[in-house]
């Protein structure tokens, strides 16, 4: 008696053979050459070729260049951030320039609120978008000089020589490498004893103002003065020299405690030394959207200062902390990071202040 199971298997094999004769490739395994061809077909577009060949070491590449032929993509936050980073890196977008040079004092006697970081990144953002900027490092620690990659060892001509010896700013200002339109007046360790030496000098509170007035203001759009975390003679010199005060405020409770003292000092300088001084800008820094406290601090500051507070907030960012160790701002270190895009939006708001022009929309993720 024939085995039904074997007959079934034999019949199935015969059917497979007949199908193979009609279609030789029906049961053949795909060759490795076919796989390679499929990969090559997938990589035909310029965008895919760039993605396959890119070597990324941080959040974004060091130099971001758009593809030769890139179709319009979806309007997503990531796409907008990438486009903003490309425009910022290539200087494709120009912002309004003020009618006269704006001398801005970046001050807050509380340390660790982001004064130097704010000064450096706002300056770089403005310079990359067509404004001529000078950073005056008035902090003896010289952190702004370090972040801009400017040499500030003891023998370098610095802001100390302008304040104590009366040297012109033009003799000590140096160009920042890789950033067109940006100058830096470095600070050295000599500045630590400047306050004692200034006490016995004539017009000790206005030494920096005289130096700024002697500089050709037609060559600059902004002078940003990075102050030390104190309210001594150096900070007073900065307030007398400037017409605007920019206050970075960390989104934490302790950051609000010393704000009242700073405001009283601004009023004293207004009354006795510089009646033109005014608080023009307040920037919320180190914002952590995961905490209720950060939002409460932001709401309280906005309710008290109103339109003086920029709509952009600076989030906590690892890239912002890393950049100074490489002698760079976060704008050049990682232009596509959240910190870089936030500072770019804040600088754009500053550029459009009192310009009479309508500001284009910024990055929604950086507003609170």
UniProtKB/TrEMBL annotation:
Ranges annotated as biased composition (Basic and acidic residues): 1-26
Any Pfam family the entry gives: AAA_31
Described function: May play a role in septum formation.
Gene3D superfamilies documented for this protein: P-loop containing nucleotide triphosphate hydrolases (3.40.50.300)
UniProt organism field: Allonocardiopsis opalescens
Sequence segments annotated as region (Disordered): 1-76
Taxonomic lineage from the root: Bacteria, Bacillati, Actinomycetota, Actinomycetes, Streptosporangiales
PANTHER family: P-LOOP CONTAINING NUCLEOSIDE TRIPHOSPHATE HYDROLASE, PARA FAMILY PROTEIN CT_582
The family this protein is said to belong to: Belongs to the ParA family.
Domain AAA: 102-279
Annotated protein name in UniProt: Chromosome segregation ATPase
